[in-house]
Specification:
The protein is an alpha+beta fold and 82 residues long. The chain contains 3 helices and 5 strands. It folds into 2 domains: 1-31, no CATH class; 33-82, no CATH class. Helices cover 21% and strands 24% of the residues. The longest helix has 6 residues, at 6-11.
């Protein structure tokens, strides 16, 4: 008897709703990760895991990022985990 994995996802609260930009809506809400830009000008960072581009248009900008990109963005000078 094969399992499709839906029961496991329900047990762990991992809903698979997909938003317009392709991210999992439940995962973003449940595991939101935010970074603040503390540099002097604007900056664009690219998440190593997702390949998404994150645009910080001014100092103090706070952006919610894909949780998979947390380790790589934490290494970028000028970004601070909120």
């Amino acid at each position: 008897m094969a399992c499709c994995g839906k029961t496991r996802a329900q047990l762990f609260g991992m809903g698979m709703g997909v938003t317009a930009n392709g991210s999992s809506s439940t995962a973003i809400r449940r595991y939101s990760v935010q970074f603040e830009y503390v540099g002097r000008t604007a900056m664009t960072a690219i998440g190593a895991a997702s390949g998404k581009r994150y645009r910080f248009d001014r100092p103090g900008a706070v952006i919610t990022v894909d949780p998979r990109d947390r380790p790589s963005l934490a290494q970028v000078p000028g970004l601070r985990l909120v």
